[in-house]
Specification:
Blueprint lengths: L8 E5 L9 E8 L7 E9 L2 E6 L24 E2 L6 E2 L6 E3 L10 E6 L2 E6 L2
Antiparallel strand pairs: 1-9, 2-3, 3-4, 5-6, 6-7, 8-9
Length: 123
């Protein structure tokens, strides 16, 4: 039995997506564990390429950022989990240091449509 493809949803107006800025949003889909918990994500430019991930550390399933819009490490090279310091490559979501090394962030599909950035979960 095949499940329906998640729907595209608005993350932000295209003009909000500028280098160095992370834009957070809430997804329509809910988490499986804990059941019904709201899912959030973030979108940003990675050397001109739009990228989006669930705001969820693969280690404990907690949000990554320590403040709204703050996802990068002190050197501004890697996405960092504020709780355990895990470091993730912005371009792939791969964890390269910390308790979830070898895991990766959950990537979202990203597109631009009618002046807005839209995202959806992969099936």
């Amino acid at each position: 039995m095949q499940t329906a493809q998640p729907q595209w949803q608005t993350a932000c107006p295209v003009q909000d997506l500028v280098p160095g800025r992370f834009v957070e949003f809430r997804l329509k889909e809910k988490a499986v564990e804990p059941e019904g918990m709201p899912l959030t994500g973030f979108v940003f430019l990675d050397h001109g390429t739009r990228r989006a991930y669930l705001n969820l550390c693969p280690h404990l399933g907690i949000e990554l950022n320590w403040m709204p819009g703050r996802f990068m490490d002190a050197d501004n090279l890697f996405i960092q989990c504020a709780t355990h310091g895990a470091l993730f490559k912005p371009g792939t979501g791969e964890c390269i240091a910390g308790p979830c090394q070898g895991d990766a962030l959950t990537e979202l599909e990203v597109r631009e449509r009618d002046g807005v950035i839209e995202v959806r979960l992969h099936n």
